[in-house]
Amino acid sequence: MSTLHPKKVSDFFHPLHSKNDLDPLLERVGDAQYVLLGEASHGTHEYYTWRAQISKRLIEEKGFSFIAVEGDWPDCFKINKWIKDGVGQDIQEVLHEFHRWPTWMWANWETAAFADWLRDYNQHQSKEDKIGFYGLDVYSLWESMEIIVKYLEKEDPETAELARQAMMCFEPFREKDSYGSVFSRSKPGCQDEVISLLKEVRQRSHNYDSELEADLNAEINSLVMANAEKYYKAMSEFGNSSWNVRDRHMMETLNRLMDYHGNQAKVIVWEHNTHIGDARATDMAHSGLVNVGQLVREEKGYNNSVLVGFGSYEGSVIAGSAWGAPMQEMYVPPARENSFEGKMHQFNGTNKLLIFDEHPEITNAFSVDLDHRAIGVVYDPERESGNYVPSDMVERYDAFLYIDQTQALHPLKLKPRENLTPETFPFGI
Protein backbone atom coordinates (compact mmCIF):
# COMPACT_ATOMS: atom_id res chain seq x y z
CA MET A 1 0.00 0.00 0.00
CA SER A 2 1.31 3.45 -0.94
CA THR A 3 2.18 6.01 1.70
CA LEU A 4 1.43 9.71 1.35
CA HIS A 5 4.50 11.98 1.44
CA PRO A 6 3.13 15.50 2.02
CA LYS A 7 6.14 17.50 0.84
CA LYS A 8 6.71 15.37 -2.24
CA VAL A 9 3.12 14.88 -3.37
CA SER A 10 2.02 18.45 -2.73
CA ASP A 11 4.54 19.69 -5.28
CA PHE A 12 2.23 18.33 -7.96
CA PHE A 13 -0.98 19.98 -6.75
CA HIS A 14 -2.29 22.94 -8.73
CA PRO A 15 -3.48 26.00 -6.77
CA LEU A 16 -7.13 26.82 -7.28
CA HIS A 17 -8.08 30.46 -6.85
CA SER A 18 -9.49 31.74 -10.15
CA LYS A 19 -10.78 30.45 -13.47
CA ASN A 20 -7.26 30.82 -14.92
CA ASP A 21 -6.14 28.06 -12.54
CA LEU A 22 -8.31 25.65 -14.52
CA ASP A 23 -5.79 25.50 -17.39
CA PRO A 24 -4.39 22.08 -16.34
CA LEU A 25 -7.92 20.65 -16.29
CA LEU A 26 -8.71 22.04 -19.74
CA GLU A 27 -5.48 20.48 -20.98
CA ARG A 28 -6.47 17.14 -19.43
CA VAL A 29 -9.86 17.30 -21.17
CA GLY A 30 -8.12 17.56 -24.54
CA ASP A 31 -10.48 16.37 -27.29
CA ALA A 32 -12.76 14.31 -25.03
CA GLN A 33 -16.47 14.57 -25.85
CA TYR A 34 -17.73 13.72 -22.35
CA VAL A 35 -16.81 15.77 -19.28
CA LEU A 36 -18.61 14.77 -16.08
CA LEU A 37 -18.50 17.30 -13.23
CA GLY A 38 -19.49 16.09 -9.78
CA GLU A 39 -20.37 17.52 -6.40
CA ALA A 40 -20.11 16.12 -2.88
CA SER A 41 -23.52 17.56 -1.97
CA HIS A 42 -26.54 19.10 -3.68
CA GLY A 43 -26.38 22.19 -1.49
CA THR A 44 -22.90 23.71 -1.66
CA HIS A 45 -22.27 27.10 -3.26
CA GLU A 46 -18.73 26.47 -4.48
CA TYR A 47 -19.56 23.26 -6.33
CA TYR A 48 -22.08 25.15 -8.46
CA THR A 49 -19.85 28.15 -9.13
CA TRP A 50 -16.74 26.11 -10.02
CA ARG A 51 -18.78 23.83 -12.26
CA ALA A 52 -20.12 26.94 -13.96
CA GLN A 53 -16.60 28.28 -14.50
CA ILE A 54 -15.39 24.99 -15.95
CA SER A 55 -18.47 24.77 -18.17
CA LYS A 56 -17.99 28.30 -19.50
CA ARG A 57 -14.43 27.56 -20.51
CA LEU A 58 -15.39 24.24 -22.10
CA ILE A 59 -18.10 25.97 -24.11
CA GLU A 60 -16.01 28.95 -25.18
CA GLU A 61 -12.66 27.24 -25.72
CA LYS A 62 -13.53 23.66 -26.67
CA GLY A 63 -16.90 23.94 -28.35
CA PHE A 64 -19.04 21.90 -25.97
CA SER A 65 -22.63 21.62 -27.16
CA PHE A 66 -24.90 21.23 -24.14
CA ILE A 67 -25.18 20.56 -20.42
CA ALA A 68 -27.05 17.55 -18.99
CA VAL A 69 -27.84 17.55 -15.28
CA GLU A 70 -29.24 15.45 -12.47
CA GLY A 71 -32.67 17.01 -12.78
CA ASP A 72 -36.14 16.25 -14.14
CA TRP A 73 -36.56 16.57 -17.89
CA PRO A 74 -39.70 18.78 -17.94
CA ASP A 75 -38.30 21.33 -15.46
CA CYS A 76 -34.88 21.52 -17.08
CA PHE A 77 -36.44 21.79 -20.53
CA LYS A 78 -38.01 25.04 -19.35
CA ILE A 79 -34.50 26.35 -18.66
CA ASN A 80 -33.41 25.06 -22.05
CA LYS A 81 -36.20 26.96 -23.81
CA TRP A 82 -35.48 30.13 -21.82
CA ILE A 83 -31.75 30.23 -22.57
CA LYS A 84 -32.41 29.60 -26.26
CA ASP A 85 -35.38 31.82 -27.02
CA GLY A 86 -36.59 33.28 -23.73
CA VAL A 87 -37.94 36.79 -24.00
CA GLY A 88 -39.44 38.95 -21.31
CA GLN A 89 -39.70 36.33 -18.56
CA ASP A 90 -37.07 36.49 -15.84
CA ILE A 91 -35.04 33.36 -15.08
CA GLN A 92 -36.25 33.50 -11.49
CA GLU A 93 -39.82 32.98 -12.72
CA VAL A 94 -38.67 29.89 -14.63
CA LEU A 95 -36.84 28.44 -11.63
CA HIS A 96 -39.74 29.10 -9.28
CA GLU A 97 -41.65 26.50 -11.32
CA PHE A 98 -39.43 23.77 -9.85
CA HIS A 99 -41.85 22.22 -7.36
CA ARG A 100 -40.47 18.74 -6.73
CA TRP A 101 -38.46 18.38 -3.52
CA PRO A 102 -35.56 19.22 -3.19
CA THR A 103 -36.49 22.48 -4.92
CA TRP A 104 -33.26 24.22 -3.86
CA MET A 105 -31.21 21.92 -6.06
CA TRP A 106 -31.98 23.99 -9.18
CA ALA A 107 -34.11 26.87 -7.89
CA ASN A 108 -31.13 28.80 -6.56
CA TRP A 109 -29.26 32.03 -7.28
CA GLU A 110 -26.20 30.17 -8.56
CA THR A 111 -28.21 28.41 -11.26
CA ALA A 112 -29.96 31.68 -12.10
CA ALA A 113 -26.64 33.40 -12.67
CA PHE A 114 -25.32 30.64 -14.91
CA ALA A 115 -28.57 30.50 -16.90
CA ASP A 116 -28.28 34.27 -17.47
CA TRP A 117 -24.78 33.72 -18.84
CA LEU A 118 -25.97 30.91 -21.11
CA ARG A 119 -28.76 33.05 -22.55
CA ASP A 120 -26.38 35.93 -23.19
CA TYR A 121 -23.96 33.54 -24.88
CA ASN A 122 -26.71 31.99 -27.01
CA GLN A 123 -27.86 35.36 -28.29
CA HIS A 124 -24.64 35.51 -30.32
CA GLN A 125 -24.94 31.97 -31.71
CA SER A 126 -26.80 30.51 -34.68
CA LYS A 127 -29.84 28.36 -33.97
CA GLU A 128 -27.79 25.20 -34.49
CA ASP A 129 -24.97 26.32 -32.17
CA LYS A 130 -26.99 27.41 -29.16
CA ILE A 131 -26.06 25.66 -25.93
CA GLY A 132 -28.72 23.39 -24.44
CA PHE A 133 -29.59 22.54 -20.84
CA TYR A 134 -31.35 19.21 -20.22
CA GLY A 135 -32.42 16.98 -17.33
CA LEU A 136 -31.40 13.33 -17.23
CA ASP A 137 -33.45 12.03 -14.32
CA VAL A 138 -36.43 9.69 -14.17
CA TYR A 139 -38.62 11.16 -11.42
CA SER A 140 -41.01 13.28 -13.50
CA LEU A 141 -43.51 10.58 -14.50
CA TRP A 142 -46.74 12.55 -14.05
CA GLU A 143 -45.35 15.77 -15.53
CA SER A 144 -44.00 13.92 -18.55
CA MET A 145 -47.35 12.18 -19.09
CA GLU A 146 -49.28 15.43 -19.03
CA ILE A 147 -46.85 17.19 -21.35
CA ILE A 148 -46.84 14.50 -23.98
CA VAL A 149 -50.61 13.99 -23.96
CA LYS A 150 -51.26 17.72 -24.40
CA TYR A 151 -48.64 18.05 -27.10
CA LEU A 152 -49.72 15.01 -29.08
CA GLU A 153 -53.39 16.00 -28.93
CA LYS A 154 -52.37 19.06 -30.93
CA GLU A 155 -49.70 17.61 -33.21
CA ASP A 156 -50.47 13.91 -33.61
CA PRO A 157 -53.99 12.86 -32.52
CA GLU A 158 -53.46 9.24 -33.53
CA THR A 159 -50.43 8.81 -31.27
CA ALA A 160 -52.12 10.92 -28.58
CA GLU A 161 -54.61 8.08 -28.11
CA LEU A 162 -51.72 5.76 -27.17
CA ALA A 163 -50.51 8.38 -24.71
CA ARG A 164 -53.93 8.66 -23.09
CA GLN A 165 -54.14 4.88 -22.70
CA ALA A 166 -50.74 4.80 -21.02
CA MET A 167 -51.69 7.66 -18.71
CA MET A 168 -54.98 5.99 -17.74
CA CYS A 169 -53.08 2.82 -16.87
CA PHE A 170 -51.25 4.68 -14.08
CA GLU A 171 -53.97 7.14 -13.08
CA PRO A 172 -55.35 5.13 -10.11
CA PHE A 173 -51.99 5.49 -8.41
CA ARG A 174 -51.49 9.19 -8.95
CA GLU A 175 -52.43 10.17 -5.40
CA LYS A 176 -50.06 7.51 -4.01
CA ASP A 177 -47.04 8.95 -5.83
CA SER A 178 -43.96 8.22 -3.75
CA TYR A 179 -40.45 7.02 -4.37
CA GLY A 180 -41.13 3.72 -2.67
CA SER A 181 -44.48 2.20 -3.53
CA VAL A 182 -46.37 3.97 -6.30
CA PHE A 183 -46.30 1.01 -8.69
CA SER A 184 -46.32 -1.89 -6.26
CA ARG A 185 -49.92 -2.69 -7.36
CA SER A 186 -50.06 -1.15 -10.83
CA LYS A 187 -52.07 -2.78 -13.58
CA PRO A 188 -50.38 -5.47 -15.68
CA GLY A 189 -49.22 -4.26 -19.05
CA CYS A 190 -48.61 -0.62 -18.15
CA GLN A 191 -45.01 -0.83 -19.28
CA ASP A 192 -46.02 -2.47 -22.57
CA GLU A 193 -48.37 0.41 -23.29
CA VAL A 194 -45.69 3.00 -22.58
CA ILE A 195 -43.10 1.18 -24.69
CA SER A 196 -45.59 1.08 -27.58
CA LEU A 197 -46.01 4.82 -27.18
CA LEU A 198 -42.25 5.38 -27.13
CA LYS A 199 -41.79 3.38 -30.34
CA GLU A 200 -44.56 5.31 -32.07
CA VAL A 201 -43.16 8.69 -30.97
CA ARG A 202 -39.67 7.74 -32.21
CA GLN A 203 -41.04 6.73 -35.60
CA ARG A 204 -43.09 9.90 -36.04
CA SER A 205 -41.01 12.47 -34.12
CA HIS A 206 -39.52 13.96 -37.30
CA ASN A 207 -42.97 15.46 -37.94
CA TYR A 208 -43.03 17.32 -34.61
CA ASP A 209 -41.55 20.71 -35.44
CA SER A 210 -43.99 23.38 -34.31
CA GLU A 211 -42.06 24.11 -31.09
CA LEU A 212 -38.41 24.25 -30.04
CA GLU A 213 -36.93 20.72 -30.19
CA ALA A 214 -40.44 19.29 -30.09
CA ASP A 215 -39.34 15.90 -31.43
CA LEU A 216 -36.68 15.55 -28.74
CA ASN A 217 -39.06 16.72 -26.01
CA ALA A 218 -41.73 14.23 -27.03
CA GLU A 219 -39.30 11.32 -27.18
CA ILE A 220 -37.58 11.96 -23.83
CA ASN A 221 -40.87 12.46 -22.03
CA SER A 222 -41.96 9.09 -23.44
CA LEU A 223 -38.67 7.55 -22.34
CA VAL A 224 -39.21 8.91 -18.82
CA MET A 225 -42.62 7.25 -18.76
CA ALA A 226 -41.14 3.90 -19.81
CA ASN A 227 -38.26 3.89 -17.37
CA ALA A 228 -40.11 5.49 -14.46
CA GLU A 229 -42.44 2.52 -14.38
CA LYS A 230 -39.45 0.18 -14.01
CA TYR A 231 -37.81 2.48 -11.46
CA TYR A 232 -40.78 2.77 -9.12
CA LYS A 233 -41.49 -0.95 -9.28
CA ALA A 234 -37.89 -1.66 -8.35
CA MET A 235 -38.19 0.81 -5.46
CA SER A 236 -41.24 -1.01 -4.13
CA GLU A 237 -39.21 -4.22 -3.90
CA PHE A 238 -36.71 -2.59 -1.50
CA GLY A 239 -33.66 -3.85 -3.40
CA ASN A 240 -30.67 -2.22 -5.07
CA SER A 241 -32.01 -2.57 -8.61
CA SER A 242 -33.76 0.82 -8.57
CA TRP A 243 -30.37 2.57 -8.49
CA ASN A 244 -29.29 0.78 -11.65
CA VAL A 245 -32.61 1.48 -13.39
CA ARG A 246 -32.19 5.18 -12.63
CA ASP A 247 -28.56 5.49 -13.75
CA ARG A 248 -29.15 3.40 -16.87
CA HIS A 249 -32.06 5.70 -17.70
CA MET A 250 -29.78 8.73 -17.32
CA MET A 251 -27.25 7.05 -19.62
CA GLU A 252 -29.94 6.21 -22.16
CA THR A 253 -31.14 9.82 -22.10
CA LEU A 254 -27.56 11.05 -22.48
CA ASN A 255 -27.08 8.81 -25.51
CA ARG A 256 -30.27 10.12 -27.10
CA LEU A 257 -29.15 13.69 -26.53
CA MET A 258 -25.79 12.99 -28.15
CA ASP A 259 -27.47 11.34 -31.15
CA TYR A 260 -29.77 14.32 -31.48
CA HIS A 261 -26.88 16.81 -31.50
CA GLY A 262 -24.74 14.91 -34.01
CA ASN A 263 -21.43 13.06 -34.21
CA GLN A 264 -19.34 16.07 -33.23
CA ALA A 265 -21.38 16.91 -30.14
CA LYS A 266 -19.69 17.35 -26.77
CA VAL A 267 -21.52 17.18 -23.44
CA ILE A 268 -20.93 18.47 -19.91
CA VAL A 269 -22.71 16.43 -17.23
CA TRP A 270 -23.51 17.85 -13.78
CA GLU A 271 -24.35 15.19 -11.20
CA HIS A 272 -23.45 14.11 -7.67
CA ASN A 273 -20.11 12.36 -7.22
CA THR A 274 -21.98 9.12 -6.55
CA HIS A 275 -23.24 9.22 -10.14
CA ILE A 276 -20.19 10.50 -12.02
CA GLY A 277 -17.35 8.84 -10.09
CA ASP A 278 -16.74 5.34 -11.50
CA ALA A 279 -18.72 2.92 -9.28
CA ARG A 280 -16.16 0.16 -9.84
CA ALA A 281 -13.67 2.11 -7.69
CA THR A 282 -16.00 2.07 -4.67
CA ASP A 283 -17.86 -0.45 -2.52
CA MET A 284 -20.87 0.11 -4.78
CA ALA A 285 -19.43 -2.55 -7.05
CA HIS A 286 -19.75 -5.20 -4.33
CA SER A 287 -23.52 -4.62 -4.35
CA GLY A 288 -23.76 -4.90 -8.11
CA LEU A 289 -24.39 -1.19 -8.59
CA VAL A 290 -23.38 0.76 -11.68
CA ASN A 291 -23.45 4.50 -12.34
CA VAL A 292 -23.22 7.02 -15.14
CA GLY A 293 -19.46 7.50 -14.78
CA GLN A 294 -18.83 3.78 -15.16
CA LEU A 295 -21.24 3.47 -18.09
CA VAL A 296 -19.69 6.44 -19.92
CA ARG A 297 -16.21 4.95 -19.56
CA GLU A 298 -17.41 1.53 -20.71
CA GLU A 299 -19.41 2.81 -23.69
CA LYS A 300 -17.36 5.83 -24.79
CA GLY A 301 -13.84 4.90 -23.66
CA TYR A 302 -11.41 6.32 -21.14
CA ASN A 303 -9.79 8.57 -23.75
CA ASN A 304 -13.12 10.14 -24.68
CA SER A 305 -14.31 10.90 -21.14
CA VAL A 306 -13.06 12.91 -18.16
CA LEU A 307 -14.58 12.41 -14.70
CA VAL A 308 -14.06 15.29 -12.26
CA GLY A 309 -14.88 14.92 -8.57
CA PHE A 310 -15.48 17.70 -6.03
CA GLY A 311 -15.06 17.75 -2.27
CA SER A 312 -14.34 19.91 0.77
CA TYR A 313 -13.11 19.78 4.36
CA GLU A 314 -15.78 21.74 6.29
CA GLY A 315 -18.33 24.51 5.96
CA SER A 316 -22.11 24.66 5.56
CA VAL A 317 -24.69 23.06 3.28
CA ILE A 318 -28.38 23.24 2.38
CA ALA A 319 -30.16 19.94 3.09
CA GLY A 320 -33.19 18.44 4.79
CA SER A 321 -33.31 16.48 8.03
CA ALA A 322 -35.58 13.89 6.36
CA TRP A 323 -37.01 13.21 2.91
CA GLY A 324 -39.41 16.05 2.08
CA ALA A 325 -38.45 18.06 5.17
CA PRO A 326 -37.95 21.84 5.00
CA MET A 327 -34.52 22.86 3.78
CA GLN A 328 -32.03 24.04 6.37
CA GLU A 329 -28.57 25.54 6.38
CA MET A 330 -26.51 22.97 8.26
CA TYR A 331 -22.98 22.91 9.60
CA VAL A 332 -20.60 20.49 7.87
CA PRO A 333 -18.01 19.39 10.46
CA PRO A 334 -14.32 18.82 9.66
CA ALA A 335 -13.75 15.68 7.63
CA ARG A 336 -12.26 12.57 9.20
CA GLU A 337 -8.52 12.86 9.67
CA ASN A 338 -7.75 9.78 7.56
CA SER A 339 -10.32 10.51 4.84
CA PHE A 340 -9.37 11.88 1.45
CA GLU A 341 -10.73 15.30 2.44
CA GLY A 342 -8.89 15.15 5.75
CA LYS A 343 -5.61 14.46 4.02
CA MET A 344 -6.22 17.26 1.51
CA HIS A 345 -6.69 19.64 4.44
CA GLN A 346 -3.35 18.53 5.86
CA PHE A 347 -1.68 19.71 2.65
CA ASN A 348 -1.65 23.40 3.65
CA GLY A 349 -5.45 23.68 3.93
CA THR A 350 -5.74 25.47 0.59
CA ASN A 351 -7.95 24.98 -2.46
CA LYS A 352 -6.31 22.74 -5.02
CA LEU A 353 -6.77 20.90 -8.30
CA LEU A 354 -5.47 17.36 -8.73
CA ILE A 355 -4.95 15.61 -12.05
CA PHE A 356 -4.57 12.00 -10.95
CA ASP A 357 -2.68 10.68 -13.97
CA GLU A 358 -0.52 13.76 -14.47
CA HIS A 359 2.49 12.49 -12.52
CA PRO A 360 3.46 9.09 -11.02
CA GLU A 361 3.76 10.64 -7.55
CA ILE A 362 0.08 11.62 -7.61
CA THR A 363 -1.01 8.31 -9.10
CA ASN A 364 0.97 6.23 -6.61
CA ALA A 365 -0.06 8.31 -3.60
CA PHE A 366 -3.80 8.02 -4.17
CA SER A 367 -4.06 4.50 -5.61
CA VAL A 368 -5.37 3.37 -2.24
CA ASP A 369 -8.82 3.08 -0.70
CA LEU A 370 -9.64 6.25 1.24
CA ASP A 371 -12.92 7.30 2.83
CA HIS A 372 -14.47 9.95 0.58
CA ARG A 373 -17.34 12.10 1.92
CA ALA A 374 -20.72 12.21 0.19
CA ILE A 375 -23.61 14.34 1.50
CA GLY A 376 -27.11 13.78 0.17
CA VAL A 377 -30.24 15.94 0.17
CA VAL A 378 -30.98 14.35 3.55
CA TYR A 379 -28.23 15.07 6.06
CA ASP A 380 -27.51 14.88 9.78
CA PRO A 381 -24.18 16.44 10.84
CA GLU A 382 -24.29 14.37 14.03
CA ARG A 383 -24.24 11.11 12.08
CA GLU A 384 -21.20 11.62 9.86
CA SER A 385 -20.08 7.98 9.88
CA GLY A 386 -22.59 7.07 7.19
CA ASN A 387 -21.41 9.78 4.81
CA TYR A 388 -18.16 8.23 3.61
CA VAL A 389 -17.61 5.95 0.62
CA PRO A 390 -14.38 3.90 0.45
CA SER A 391 -12.83 4.92 -2.87
CA ASP A 392 -9.75 4.38 -4.97
CA MET A 393 -9.61 8.02 -6.00
CA VAL A 394 -7.30 7.44 -8.98
CA GLU A 395 -9.67 4.89 -10.47
CA ARG A 396 -12.82 6.76 -9.51
CA TYR A 397 -11.91 10.12 -11.08
CA ASP A 398 -9.53 11.61 -13.61
CA ALA A 399 -9.30 14.91 -11.72
CA PHE A 400 -10.53 16.48 -8.49
CA LEU A 401 -11.33 19.99 -7.23
CA TYR A 402 -10.77 20.29 -3.50
CA ILE A 403 -12.30 23.33 -1.76
CA ASP A 404 -11.10 23.59 1.83
CA GLN A 405 -13.89 25.78 3.27
CA THR A 406 -17.33 25.90 1.65
CA GLN A 407 -20.62 27.65 2.26
CA ALA A 408 -24.24 26.74 1.68
CA LEU A 409 -26.03 27.19 -1.60
CA HIS A 410 -28.37 30.20 -1.95
CA PRO A 411 -31.97 29.03 -2.67
CA LEU A 412 -34.21 31.51 -4.46
CA LYS A 413 -36.57 31.42 -1.50
CA LEU A 414 -33.87 33.05 0.62
CA LYS A 415 -32.60 36.53 -0.16
CA PRO A 416 -28.80 36.43 -0.50
CA ARG A 417 -26.64 38.54 1.73
CA GLU A 418 -26.21 42.10 0.51
CA ASN A 419 -22.64 41.56 -0.69
CA LEU A 420 -23.65 38.49 -2.71
CA THR A 421 -25.44 39.19 -5.96
CA PRO A 422 -26.14 36.79 -8.83
CA GLU A 423 -23.46 38.55 -10.85
CA THR A 424 -20.78 37.45 -8.36
CA PHE A 425 -21.83 33.82 -8.21
CA PRO A 426 -20.20 32.52 -11.39
CA PHE A 427 -16.80 33.58 -10.09
CA GLY A 428 -16.99 31.93 -6.69
CA ILE A 429 -16.15 33.72 -3.48
Mind summarizing the main beta sheet? 9 strands, mixed
Instruction: List how many beta strands DSSP finds.
Output: 11
Domains counted in the coordinates: how many? 2
Query: How far do the termini sit from each other?
Result: 38 Å
Unreliable stretches (pLDDT < 50, length at least 5) are 175-186
DSSP helical segment count: 16
The 3D shape can be described as: globular
Portion in strands: 15-25%
Q: Which structural class best describes the helix and strand composition?
A: alpha/beta
- Known CATH architecture of the largest domain: 3-Layer(aba) Sandwich
The CATH superfamily of the largest domain is EreA-like (biosynthetic domain)
Q: Cα-atom Rg, whole angstroms? A: 21 Å
Please provide the ordered H/E string of secondary-structure elements.
HEHEHEHHHEHHHHHEHHEEHEHEEHE
State the CATH class of the largest domain.
Alpha Beta
CATH fold title of the largest domain: EreA/ChaN-like  fold
What percentage of residues falls in helices of 4 or more residues?
Answer: 40-55%
Mean pLDDT: 84
GO biological process, one term: response to antibiotic
Organism: Christiangramia crocea
Pfam family, one: Erythro_esteras
InterPro entries: Emycin_Estase, Hydrolase/PRTase-associated, UCP036794_erythomycin
